[in-house]
Amino acid sequence: MARVFSGIQPSGDLHLGNLLGALVNWVNHQEEHEAVYCIVDLHALTLPKDPEELRSSTLELAQLLMAVGLDPDKCTLFVQSHVPEHSQLAWLMECTVSYGELSRMTAFKDKSDRSEFISAGLFTYPALQAADILLYDTDLVPVGDDQRQHIEITRDIAERFNHRFGETFVVPEHVIPPAGARIMDLQHPERKMSKSQHSVNGTINVLENPDSVRKKIKRAVTDSDGEIRFDFESKAGVSNLLSILGAAKGDSPEEVAKSFERYGDLKSAAADAVVDLLLPIQERYADLQADPAETRRLLQAGAEKAQEVASRTLTRTQQNCGLLQA
Ligand code: TRP
Q: 7 CA to middle of ligand 1, Å?
């Protein structure tokens, strides 16, 4: 069975784009593969964070992921800092990657342009991400196209280490999720739905109440030619609604387009589908929130399962690069 690994930062809330774009695939992967999912709290520290907020958003994200369908019996779900091997391997990765390679990362350039305090951790972020992935002998990494460079550098690090010190790491492949589920901002359909752009009316939160969901979809930007077809180039707003409805129902947007003639009807159907999708998630989330001790217990069990694999990989890596065994 192939091993799948992915990571998600505990920053801000989950929105419909995360749900339909990535998490639906994560849920599917746990059926077909050996899936390992990590809440990357150490990566979150690369930018300034309020301690209480980080703590609560880590727990909340775990509960949201379980509410969405990640099942601790079927996958390994854990918090990065609970498995110290991540930090330990990250140092060895930092010593395997070059300053020049890290300087070419576009994510670093974007984030450092927007940040006043540029931590060294922000610069070496990809070394920690490589450690995350390589610790689990990962075959497949399902992440968005924006992570392409980070997966490439992980592969380069793995290959370089194997070349210098002998076979140590599995070289992972990047799997880009199916294109259909690219969910765009409802107000600016030319850009991805995103928690960082502060587009309140363009973003639907997974925990948003039905009234608000309906209002936002009703107000979504369309166009004036009155035609319903899936064509992102010239009809981004309408196409986005078709993507949302299609993804929520498990149909292709092209197929969905055939059933509607009026924008108003498309919007009502999309709103109903999103509300139907979110309500059971919100109910499960409320149940999990009622018992945080249980969530922590599940996360601890997840960390123990993860650590079994991670500690073996770390020991092998330490031996191969010449550290004296303790
Ligand atoms: N950098 C990823 C992001 O911003 C998060 C991440 C950290 C990750 N470690 C990972 C993703 C390992 C995949 C695999 O989305």
A: 4
Cα–Cα dist 151/138, whole Å: 12
Q: Closest ligand 1 atom, CA of 129?
A: 9
Q: Where are the domains of the chain?
A: 3-175+292-321, 210-286
Q: Which helix (H) or strand (E) holds 36?
A: strand 34-39
Kindly list the protein residues whose Cβ atom lies closer than 6 A to any atom of ligand 1: 5-7, 9, 40, 43, 129, 132-133, 141, 143, 147, 150
* pLDDT tens digits for range 211-254: 999 999 999 999 999 999 999 999 999 999 999 999 999 889 99
* Average pLDDT over every residue of 20-36: 93
Ligand 1 atom closest to Cα of residue 8: 5
Strand partners, 15: 205
Q: Confidence class of residue 21 from pLDDT cuts 50, 70 and 90?
A: confident
* Chain segment 289-299, per-residue pLDDT in tens: 999 999 999 99
pLDDT of residue 146 exceeding 90, the answer is no
Ligand 1 site-directed mutation target among 147, 153, 170, most atoms within 8 Å of CB: 147
CA of residue 278 to ligand 1 center, whole Å: 25
Angle subtended at Cα 190 by Cα 181 and Cα 256, rounded to the nearest 5 degrees: 40
- Domain 210-286 falls under CATH 1.10.240.10: yes
Level-2 CATH architecture, domain 3-175+292-321: 3-Layer(aba) Sandwich (3.40)
Chain position carrying tokens 């369309």: 222
Q: Would you please indicate which residues are annotated as catalytic (active-site) residues?
A: 111, 192, 195
Output the CA 255–ligand 1 centroid distance in Å.
33
Given a cut of 50, whether residue 180 has pLDDT beyond it is: no
- What pLDDT shows up at residue 72? 98
In angstroms, the Cα distances linking 144 to 7, 147, 244 are 11, 6, 17
Report the alpha-carbon distance of residue 268 to residue 236 in Å, rounded.
18
Residue nearest to atom 3 of ligand 1 (CA): 8
Hunting for tokens 């180039």 — which residue is that?
A: 233
pLDDT in tens, 243-274: 999 999 988 999 999 999 999 999 999 999 99
- 3-175+292-321 and 210-286: same fold? no
